Amino acid sequence: MFRNNYFKTSNWEETSTSPTVNEVVILCEYVRGLLERGSASACFDTRFCGFAENELIQVMKLGLICTSEVPSRRPSMTEVVQVLESIRSGIEP
């Protein structure tokens, strides 16, 4: 269930920062908390091996900005593309 940035956990790998099974979680708040605690890698799908962790973290941060509750705080698609291109090229956005 991903409606309104909520999801119900069921298949999470167990880590100290993972929600419990069947716990309803606000996805953006969960990811933001992991970023603040320096545990962002707990969000990464293990199939993303080969990607630089700092790039994945930057994309996660961009995703949080794009899901801001205040529409005027969300970047335009042009800005999103520019940030993604800068991440890909190794330039700090």
How would you describe this protein?
With 93 residues, the protein is mostly helical. It has two domains: 1-43, no CATH class; 45-93. The protein has three helices and two strands, in the order ββααα. It has helices at residues 27-36, 53-66, 77-89; strands at residues 6-8, 24-26. The chain has a two-stranded antiparallel ribbon with strand order 1-2. Helix 1 packs across helix 2 (53-66). The longest helix has 14 residues, at 53-66.
Spatial strand order of the main sheet: 1-2
The major pleated sheet works out as: 2 strands, antiparallel
- The protein's oligomeric status is single chain
* Helical proportion, percent range: 25-40%
Query: What is the overall pLDDT average?
Result: 78
Query: In percent, how much strand structure appears in the residues?
Result: 5-15%
- Taking Cα atoms only, what radius of gyration do you get, to the nearest Å? 14 Å
How many β strands by DSSP? 2
**Alpha carbon gap, first and last residue:** 32 Å
Given helix and strand content, the structural type is mainly alpha
Which residues sit in consecutive blocks of at least 5 with pLDDT less than 50?
A: 1-16
- The geometry reads as flat
Order of helices and strands: EEHHH
Number of helices: 3
Total domain units: 2
Summed up:
The protein has 93 residues and is mainly α. The chain is 40% helix and 6% strand. It is built from 3 helices and 2 strands.
